[in-house]
Specification:
about 400 residues; alpha+beta; Dna Ligase, domain 1; 4-stranded parallel β-sheet; 11 helices; 19 strands; binds adenosine-5'-triphosphate; binds magnesium ion
């Protein structure tokens, strides 16, 4: 079997349409270019990070079915690669039926963007251990569900990402606020929330899992810390007892096999003592996995592209002890400036990425610093020092 890759910007080009143009999409575009793939970056705002490095760009609301449909019919891409959750998945299902190749497949994107669908699939169909959960459509129902689950518990919109609209409720008086907060952020299926019991975990990891035609391969676990539902630092490899790692891999294998298709998946797991709980899964590179830009020979983006193009995935992936720390801004500006101390990259094991985001309004991830060292603890220390040498001006 062979694979054809044409020449970008010619009639025989191999085209990838990337839906979402943030920092993860930007790295993905760069990897696609390395294999001579023509890239088209899409997002709802102009000058998004991936647009700055792609062959073509479109500014479009990807929840708008007819616009998304028209664009796909116009460009006729060989691959449609979702990079965010806010995409009209009905359109992806329809377009897939017409023979377009959605990565990893439209149904996986449809199931994972909705906490109700993925939770029911993981817990009820696959019997994976998860936190206890219930759903509520109204404030009245929520109050009853919180009683049944017990406090503290998490309340989240069934459709949202990066911790948006999410609250930890410790007592009854906080339920109203949590409901209102969820309502202000929920997308499409507005209203419905999930109530999840708190897992008092020791560790939280992302297990990057690559599914290709021939195999399922795992990257070494990535440990991370989240604040307000958004990641602030990650490290790899996160060491785990062998028996715990086996449990993690079994869960990841089950969920990615069920979702199907080729590509990388970010499987989010909570670890309490020797017990492993499934939290959620992204059918695409994961933000905490940006650490692989320094830790692995093949980053999560490179692995995603190799799986998509059917080029093969090595059975064993290694990581040198490394860490990432985010550069998060907080302000309002369309003219963000980074003030960087001279000579801060005076070692090969240090790096940083600035995403080139055109504006900020509130808090926003604008870059990351990366470091490797003899241990993840030391790498994290180096990354934090590097982070302190970059400041922001608005
Ligand atoms: N049931 C739970 N028990 C303990 N911690 C939780 C629970 N649910 C969420 N968290 C914490 O909140 C974080 C964000 O939750 P979750 O992954 O569900 O939200 P998200 O909006 O999808 O975030 P992201 O898009 O960044 O992955 C988790 O990584 C974890 O740290
Ligand atoms: Mg998450």
């Amino acid at each position: 079997m062979t694979i054809n890759i044409g020449t970008p910007n010619s009639i025989n080009s191999t085209k990838a349409l990337i839906l979402g143009s943030g920092e993860l999409a930007k790295e993905l575009v760069i990897e696609l270019h390395r294999f001579g793939v023509e890239t088209i970056a899409v997002d709802r705002y102009d000058n998004a990070p991936a647009m700055q490095v792609s062959h073509k760009k479109y500014v479009l609301d990807m929840l708008n079915s007819s616009k998304l449909f028209k664009l796909i019919e116009l460009e006729k891409p060989n691959f449609i690669i979702p990079e965010i959750e806010a995409i009209n998945t009905d359109t992806l299902m329809e377009i897939e039926k017409k023979g377009f190749n959605v990565i990893p497949n439209a149904s996986a994107v449809f199931k994972t963007m909705n906490r109700e669908r993925i939770r029911n699939l993981a817990s009820e169909k696959l019997n994976l251990p998860t936190s206890n959960y219930l759903f509520a459509d109204s404030y009245e129902e929520l109050k009853i569900s919180v009683k049944n689950i017990g406090m503290p518990c998490f309340i989240k919109p069934i459709m949202s990402s990066s911790g948006k609209g999410q609250s930890l409720v410790n007592n009854e008086s906080e339920i109203r606020k949590a409901w209102d907060f969820a309502q202000s952020y929920g997308r499409a299926g507005k209203g419905k929330v999930i109530i999840e019991s708190l897992i008092d975990f020791n560790d939280e990891i992302t297990l990057l899992t690559i599914k290709s035609e021939n195999n399922i391969v795992f990257c070494p676990p990535i440990g991370h810390i989240q604040k307000d539902g958004d990641y602030i630092e990650s490290w790899q490899p996160h060491s785990l007892p062998k028996s715990t790692l086996i449990k993690c891999k079994k869960i990841a294998e089950k969920i990615v096999s069920e979702l199907g298709g080729n590509g990388i998946f970010g499987v989010e797991l909570f670890i309490k003592d020797n017990e492993v709980y499934f939290s959620e899964v992204s059918p695409r590179p994961h933000d905490t996995g940006m650490v692989t830009l320094i830790s692995q020979d093949l980053s999560e983006f490179s692995l995603h592209v190799r799986a998509i193009l059917n080029l093969g995935i090595p059975e064993k992936i290694k990581a040198k002890p490394s860490a990432s720390v985010v550069i998060k801004g907080d302000g309002k500006s369309e003219n963000i400036k980074f003030i960087i101390k001279k000579n801060i990259l005076n070692e090969t094991e240090l790096s940083f990425k600035l995403f080139g985001k055109p504006s900020i309004s509130g808090t926003r991830r604008l870059g990351i610093v990366l470091a490797s060292s003899v241990s993840t603890k030391d790498a994290l220390k180096k990354a934090k020092k590097l982070r302190s040498e970059i400041s922001l001006e608005y």
